[in-house]
Amino acid sequence: MPELTLVEAVNLALARAMADDADVVVLGEDVGVNGGVFRATAGLQRRFGPERVVDTPLAELLISGLCVGMAAQGLKPVGEIQFMGFLYPCIDQLVNHASRLRHRTQGRLTCPMVLRTPYGAGIRAPEHHSESTEVMLAHIPGLRVVVPSSPERAYGLLLAAIRDPDPVVFLEPTRIYRAVKGEVEDDGEALPLDVAFVLREGRDVTLIAWGAMLKETLAAADALAEEGIAAEVIDLATLKPYDEETILASVAKTGRCVIVHEAARTAGFGAEIAALIAERGLLSLLAPVARVTGYDTIVPLPRLEQHYLPSVDRVMAAARKVVGFG
Amino acid sequence: MDDTPGSGQDLPVIARFEVRRRSYLAPDGAPLRALPSFASDLDLLLALYRGMVLTRTFDLKAVALQRTGRLGTYAVSLGQEAVSIGVASAMGEADVLLPSYRDNAALLWRGVKMEEILLYWGGDERGNCSSGPPHDFPFCVPVGSQAPHAAGVAYAFRLRKEPRVAVCLFGDGATSKGDVWEAMNFAGVWKLPLVFVANNNQWAISVPLKLQTASATLAQKAIAAGFAGEQVDGNDVLAVRAAAEEAIAVARAGGGPRLIEAVTYRLGDHTTADDAARYRPPEEVQARWKEEPIARLRSYLVSRKAWGKSQEEQLAAECQERVEAAVERYLATGPRAPQTMFDHLYAELPAVYAGQRQELEQASDA
User: Fold this and answer.
1) Residue A96 carries which DSSP code?
2) ipTM value for the complex
3) Model pLDDT for residues A269-280, shown as the tens digit of each residue
4) CB contact under 8 A, B135 and A142
């Protein structure tokens, strides 16, 4: 099996989906001849033609709105927004149309679209290229929000997103686009869209993360093991809907939980998970739930962004604290 | 002549554009020029007339229902019936309509039932699961946001080489939004089979056209997107129908998009939640009643001896009867179980939300 980077796995899944289904159309800024600014769509236009790999005008609202119209007509559009910082004009289309077309027509029209976008800090990018505002999307009923954290899961989850009959926002962590490699078999197998992945089992503390933060979280788990702390690591992978049962089962086992995300703390998705545990897992807790997150400030420009991102040390410190509680 | 520095008078002109205006019937119904060929089909003209009268009867009843607490907020099309009817009558069944919230007439023409429209504005999503063509879009409430959908629909037709056309209606206010421009721009690049129709009723709630744009016409907004825009007298259903017929034929034949600006006037309030007297002098409205589309076509039909008092009375009674029957069916539509608000949220409700659905079911049983 070939070793691929995460962005290569995205490319492989797109190619697979397009080869399998003539209704799949890729559209976005620079996705055609240029193959995408991150190369996620490299080679697709040459293989599938400029009508199925569409270089759109520079208009994000348009891209999301086109996807809605195409999807209502039975195509399976996969739109690319070049960076999450440019996704906000699409919020109107996502909230007012994509997420509710099926509901407001009682199933008469549907919206099987995917909107992909790279997201997150840590690549020394210019301003507006580093935010993690996934929770804004996870708040929208009728939408699915998916975040891969490895090449294998990027491949399987993206195939699932494209095949899903409902709109999916697919957030690709830029920081690990090329930082992780893994074996990916191009078998066309999709992964489930509402199941979290237990990446490492442990009895002492549950560490929950998604996207690029799995890198620090897994490194922290390795280091904690050397200190005799056995951490269980969950890759949430799908934020909407999200897998409550895997979280609760793990916390029931460990009694301790640290949630790690790079988005700002207040009303971040970690708050949702902490609330879930408080509502349904309180009696299994042996320590307060801890959150290791980005700070409630603007993501700073590259000179300071490493100080903003949760580090291995911060994850370890939080884990030690909850394990040592009481 | 302007000879101030920088006025550019000595530079060559590299582009010139024209915008034409189409009208056939004067406000008194008198033909202004040779009529389009379909005007020889009297049955069609009568159908257009009936469609407009039915729409007005329906609208007035809907307002009455709202005033008596039996309907939610409702957007009347009073005075603008010719726009929706003229456009819808030029479409084929397989074409896709993407309407604004004021295009009741177009929906009715395309087979949506009156009770379904009432059901939607009466607060029930089932009204959108309507009897019109299943591929048509429902009313669009966020202004202009349906224009990119129209481009997506038209793109699908182009990709599949289907001889179908998307027809997108919006108001003058929508032309100020990026949504409409982004859709027109894309439609121009890809020569999409798409007809944009701007219903220029002069008012976006309380904001008059002169505060909406400095553009001499809305039609000319198409020129920047690389295709033709035409202004039509939107109170002349023959002009609207002829312009739509031509634009749809061109689009279907691969000639790309067009923009039709239908100039009309909103004789009523913006919606039942609005009071236009707050911002619009009654004399202005009164003057515009002289141009309204139904009386205009009636005058023409009368002049052709195709219409008279007895037919008018019969039609009024028939429309009244149809509307009353639809209202009865609407009012007789039973409520849905509260937990059905989870139906059609996703193709299959994710297991994680089953508990909330159950919670609601139990709460509403109690």
Assistant:
1) I
2) 0.97
3) 999 999 999 999
4) no
